[in-house]
User: Fold this.
Amino acid sequence: MKTLYLDCSMGAAGDMLTAALVDLLPEPDKFIDELNALGIPDVKIAKQSAVKCGITGTHISVTVNGEEENEEMHHHHEHTHEHTHEHEHEHEHSHEHGHTHTHHHSSMHDIEHILSHISLPQKVREDVLAVYGLIAEAESAAHGVPMTQIHFHEVGTMDAVADVSAVCLLMDRLSPDEVIVSPVHVGSGQVKCAHGILPVPAPATAYILKDVPIYGGEINGELCTPTGAALLKHFATRFGAMPVMKTQAIGYGMGKKDFPAANCVRAMLGETADKTDEVSELSCNVDDMTAEEIGFAMERLFEVGALEVYTVPIGMKKSRPGILLRVMCKEQDRENLLSLIFKHTTTIGVRETATRRYILDRSIETLDTPYGTVHIKKSCGYGVSRVKYEYDDLARIAAEKNISIEDARRLVEEQK
Assistant:
């Protein structure tokens, strides 16, 4: 299985992730040319060699009209569209500026408008919007401001658009079957931003990294930015230790600031064994529920994270016909699903069995066709690979064109 492991023992930022992933490509300079050809307004992206603690890696710089992003812009949002502030550099920049600028700000709607004019594949554009959605949701929750009133600093906006677009393009280009991220070092102390002095991790970063293993330490400073956190949260298949893998490429994405430890994200691309995981099977027997009630219960269980829910006709005591309801779930979802089984069924007892699954790795790609977007389900592992079109997309095309599902499938095949 093609696996990407991201070592975030010195946190993560958008430019650091970009640099680490670029290093994995056979022709990184060609990819930088592609980024500059995307048409991100007034943006210039450059790649330089950098050394941290004796390790050589790559640094990516993004300038907007010749001006580089600063740390304050990582956290900046306001209720107005114009604001004056002083620049302060922290994690990614080793120098400080004391001059003042006036800039415009962009809302989430403006981000969508910017992306509509950038030459990105549809799947990559969806990934970019999803990452921005995580950031906006976090800013909204952290500062008590509706998402519609979140505004991003002009330079910070374009820099972040470049960083996020670059990482999403790189993930699409590398197409790993699994992305494993180490526990994230967030740093310690305080960070200066437009709102004042905030604790590390900053509130928006802390919100994004909920349910993610994080830790502080003796490094004084902000190591993980909101953009870096959102990218990790969006793309990570899981968080944990480095797996047993045969490494094929290694990238070092350097930040600008110097710390006692090498300030970098390390990306390792290689092959791991085929996928297995441990799951719980929750089972109960019922003989006094209607088919509609059972169907309603199954829908609720799927909504909260059940991996699989199915029924089997059984014969119960006194020869009564009944239903065996079985729910497969991850360990962390077990308690929640147990509560819902008792809530939505008439059972008075649930059995649990721990079991191991051997599974093909799955991914979903999108195909733009004259008939609309079609999602393609891909699975691979154990020496096999399979491709299947999303039924709902084929059904929509068949209904719109008054043709059979098979004819709709042939139409889609012709677009590949």
The two ends are 24 Å apart (CA to CA).
